[in-house]
Specification:
mainly alpha; Na+/H+ antiporter like fold; disordered C terminus
Length: about 425
C-alpha cells in the first residue's frame, strides 16, 4: 500500500475516533476535547499504538500526522483570537503581567526543587523548572469556547496571560541557553537580540496587520475568486505563525493568535469565521487533540521515572494554579475568577513539548526525564478541561456578540458537537 493510502486510512481512523470520543465525553457532561485527548492516548503507544501496526509501513506517517496537528493548533488559536477585541484584551494588561510573571516564577522554583530532590544538577533542575513554566492555552481556549466564556473577564485575562507567559518563557529559555552554552559577552548580546526580535515582531504584526489585513480581506472577498477569502486567511495564518518563530523567536501559536486579533476587525469577519471553523474542526483540530495523546506512553512510567513524574505533576499543577491565580488576585480578579485563571493556565500542551525537545537535543535532559515530562504535559492537558468546566459551574454564560442568524448558521454547519 502506498504511503498516501496509509495516510488516508490513518486520517480516517483518527478523525472518526476523535469525533466519537468527543461526542461520548459531551454526553457524559464533560468537554468534548477531553474525550478526544483520551482517545489519542488509547490509540497511542500506551495501548493500541495504531500508527505502528504492521499495516502501516510508512515510517514517516507519525511525523506527517504531527504536522497536521500543528496546523490544527494554529487554526484553533486563530479562532480564539478572532473571538476577541484588541481593546478588551488590552484592559487585562495588569492581570496578564502579574499572572504571567508569577505563573512562570513559581513553576520554575517548584520544578527546580523537584529536580534537586532527585539528585539532578543545578542546570538540569533549572531546565526542568523552565519546562514547567510553559503554558499552552489552546485546550483552555477550546473549553471556554464550549462554555461560551471566552469573552468573559477570565477569558480575556487567560489569553493575555498566555501571551505574556509565552514571551517570558522564550526569553528565559534564551537566557538559559546563552549562559549555559556561550561566554558572557556573547550571551548578553543574544539576550538583547531576543528581546528586540519579540518587540519588533509584536509591534509590526499588530500594526501592519491592522492597517492592511481588514481592508485587504474585504477587497479579496469581492473578487471573483473561488474561496479567495478563505485562502487569503489561511495564507495569513501560516505566514504569521512562521514569522512568529522565524523573526519573533516565539511560538507559532502566538503569531496565529495575533492574526486572529487582527482579522477580528475585518468587516467580513463572520464569513472568515464560518470558513475557518469548517476547515479547522472538520480536519485539523481533531488531529491535534488526538496527536497530543499519541505522544504519551504510559508503559514508560516505571520505577524512579514514575516518582519523578508524580513530583513534577504536583509541581506543575500547584505552580500554575497558585502562581497565575495569585497574579489574578493581585490584578483585581475575585477568588473564583483567579482560580479559573490558574486552572486555565495549567495545560502545558505543545509549548511544554517544544521546550522539552530543546533540552533533549542539547543534552540537558535524558530520555527518562523526557518521558516524565511528556507524562506531565499529558496529565495537565487532561486535567484542564474538566477542572475548568467544574470551576465555571453555576456561572452565567456570556452572551456572544453575534446575531441570531449567525448562531443558527453555526448550529446547522456543525450540529451536535459542542467543540465546534
Amino acid at each position: 500500500m502506498t504511503p498516501f493510502l496509509q495516510l488516508s486510512l490513518a486520517l480516517a481512523i483518527l478523525i472518526a475516533a476523535a469525533k466519537i470520543g468527543g461526542y461520548i465525553s459531551y454526553r457524559w457532561g464533560q468537554p468534548s476535547v477531553l474525550g478526544e485527548l483520551i482517545v489519542g492516548i488509547l490509540l497511542g503507544p500506551s495501548l493500541f499504538d495504531v500508527l505502528h501496526l504492521a499495516y502501516f509501513t510508512d515510517t514517516h506517517l507519525p511525523e506527517v500526522i504531527h504536522e497536521f496537528a500543528e496546523v490544527g493548533v494554529l487554526l484553533l488559536m486563530f479562532l480564539a483570537g478572532l473571538e476577541l477585541d484588541i481593546k478588551d484584551l488590552a484592559h487585562t494588561g495588569r492581570v496578564a503581567a502579574l499572572a504571567g510573571t508569577l505563573g512562570v516564577i513559581l513553576p520554575v522554583a517548584l520544578g527546580a526543587g523537584a529536580g534537586l530532590a532527585f539528585d539532578m544538577s543545578v542546570v538540569n533542575a533549572l531546565f526542568i523548572g523552565l519546562i514547567l513554566a510553559a503554558t499552552s492555552v489552546s485546550i483552555s481556549a477550546q473549553t471556554l469556547m464550549e462554555l461560551n466564556m471566552l469573552r468573559s473577564r477570565v477569558g480575556f485575562s487567560l489569553l493575555g496571560s498566555a501571551v505574556f507567559d509565552d514571551i517570558l518563557v522564550v526569553l528565559c529559555l534564551s537566557i538559559f541557553t546563552a549562559l549555559t552554552f556561550a561566554d558572557s559577552p556573547t550571551g548578553l548580546s543574544r539576550i538583547l537580540i531576543v528581546v528586540l526580535r519579540m518587540v519588533i515582531f509584536l509591534t509590526a504584526s499588530a500594526g501592519i496587520g491592522l492597517l492592511i489585513l481588514p481592508r485587504a480581506s474585504r477587497r479579496i472577498h469581492n473578487l471573483p475568486i473561488s474561496q479567495g477569502l478563505t485562502a487569503f486567511t489561511v495564507v495569513t495564518i501560516f505566514l504569521y505563525g512562521w514569522a512568529s518563530e522565524e523573526f519573533g523567536g516565539m511560538a507559532a501559536i502566538t503569531g496565529a493568535f495575533v492574526a486572529g486579533l487582527v482579522f477580528a476587525r475585518s468587516p467580513v469577519k463572520e464569513r472568515i469565521e464560518n470558513s475557518i471553523v469548517a476547515l479547522a474542526y472538520g480536519l485539523f483540530v481533531p488531529i491535534f487533540f488526538i496527536d497530543v495523546g499519541l505522544t504519551a506512553n504510559i508503559r514508560n512510567m516505571t520505577g524512579e521515572s514514575l516518582w519523578l513524574f508524580l513530583a513534577l505533576t504536583l509541581a506543575a499543577v500547584v505552580g500554575k494554579v497558585a502562581g497565575s491565580g495569585a497574579g489574578g488576585l493581585l490584578g483585581g480578579l475575585n477568588r473564583r475568577e483567579a482560580l479559573q485563571l490558574g486552572l486555565g493556565m495549567m495545560s502545558r500542551g505543545e509549548v511544554g513539548l517544544i521546550v522539552a525537545s530543546v533540552g533533549i537535543k542539547q543534552g540537558i535532559i535524558n530520555e527518562a526525564i523526557f518521558s516524565a515530562v511528556v507524562g506531565v504535559v499529558i496529565i495537565t492537558t487532561l486535567l484542564t478541561p474538566p477542572l475548568l468546566r467544574a470551576s465555571f459551574r453555576g456561572a452565567l454564560p456570556v452572551a456572544p456578540i453575534v446575531t441570531a442568524k449567525k448562531q443558527t448558521q453555526k448550529e446547522e454547519i456543525i450540529p451536535g458537537d459542542m467543540s465546534e
